[in-house]
Structures are given as structure tokens and as C-alpha cells.
Amino acid sequence: MAEEGNSQDKVQLTSGKKEIMFDEKSGRFFETNLDAGECIPDEEFCTIDDETGKRIRFLTIAEKERIFLDSLQSYYVNGRQLLSDEDFDLLKEDLQWNGSPLVVLNRDEAKYLAAMEAYLKGSPIMSDSEFDSLKLLLKETGSKFAVDTEPKCYIDTGVCKVTLQEDKFRSNLLYLPAGIILSVVWLGVGFELIEPIVRLNPVLLFLLGFPLVYNGAKKITEEFIFENKFIAYGPCPACEIENRVYFGNILGVEGFSDVAECKCQNCKEVFSVQRNTLRASTLPKA
Question: Per the confidence metrics, is the pTM higher than 0.70?
């Protein structure tokens, strides 16, 4: 009877991460001895241990998101089902409870997946030009459904592909040399012309000339120093080591325009990068 009374005073709660119990007498929660590697199949998506055949909690949120994305792309693009409907629904619910934004599709992403599914069934719902425009829009917005940021290799051709990303940080750094020179010139001229009339704080003087310095640095950089500039970065399609590609001219010297031919610094593999799609692919194997 005493044990039965004690059990009624405790309320057990099980979450996807650990098991806790509430003791009504003490008014406190405490953890039980649930193993951190044990899986709760009804509440979370887990992998299967190759040795024991049992489900274990081993995946991180990022890994679960990768499985979810691969499952969607494999089903809608290739028509191949990686997970059963039950496991997919469980994985999706698990990601929702963990606050993953990947499980929430916007209108364009849902339209893209629906177009892929309809195409595989032999009844396309949009023309090729409309589909290409939609895919380009998703790539420009950084949608993970249209951008493969991890390399994929095809056994039949030996070609490896990946989608690079725009390096906005380094692109903005290219304005720095012209900006520094114009700032120094403005401060020097400003002190010479304004100082005899009225004394101004150098910070205030710089702020007054900032619009002129900004527009001047932008014009000089884009039209004379780094003409038609664009910097992309991402993993090598073959070895996954990060590489960077510069499109455009430098001080009148012509560089890559539409397609860049690059060689990985690590594996020495030659691959091409398209500027409009940022698609990088290695050459077919002989």
C-alpha cells in the first residue's frame, strides 16, 4: 500500500531527450535512469543499430534535417522512397517539435515539389521555362529544396556536382581600398577648406562626407577596379574542401565571365562553375 501511495504522488513525463518524474510531496522534478542512447519510437525519429537491430537515439538535429531533405528530394526528383510513410511522418513531427524551419514550406517550395511530382507521373503542370524560372527563384532566395550545398557524385558518369554560394562578405571588402583612400582625401580637403571657417569634429566631418565617399567608392570599385565582380564559395565537388571563385575583371584584366574553370587546391580536380546558377561540376571521367 505504501508503494502504491508513493507511485500516486509521482507523475512521470517522457520527452524526446530524457525522462523526468515529478514528486508531488517535494514539488520537484528529477531525472530517471533512462539511458541517453535509448529511443522513444512513438515520440522521436531514431536510427537502427546495425549490431543489435534496435532503435537508438544517435542523430543530431542537423543530421535529421539532412535525412528529411534527402528523402523529399529523392521522392520528388528521382521517384525513389528512402523512408516509409510512418518513419517520414515521425521524422517530420520530431523536427517540428525541435523547432526546425525546414519542415515548413513556403508557396514557391510547395509549387516546386508539386511540379516535380507531376513531371515524374507524366503529367507536367507547368512548362520547362516556368519550371526553370521557379527553380532559379528558389536558388536566389536560398531555398534548400533547390540548392545542393553538399557534393553529390554519379556513378555512371563519374561527375560530381554541388551548388556554391555568393560570398557577400568578401564582395563588400572589395570596396574597402577605394573607400579608405576617398575617406582620407575627404578629411584632408575638409580640414583645409572648412577648418578656417568653422571648427568641426573629425567624426562629424566624416559623417557629412560619408554619402560622397560611399557613392564614389562604389563607382570606382565597380567600374574601374573590380569590374562586373562576383565572388562565390563552397566545397569542392570532389573532395569537399572549401574553394572560392572570382568572376569579373581586375584593373582591365579580363577574368571569368559566365563560366569559370577552376582547380581544387587540395585534390587538384578540375571543375567548372556557372555564374548564373553557381552550379559546380567536375569533368566526366574517361
Answer: no
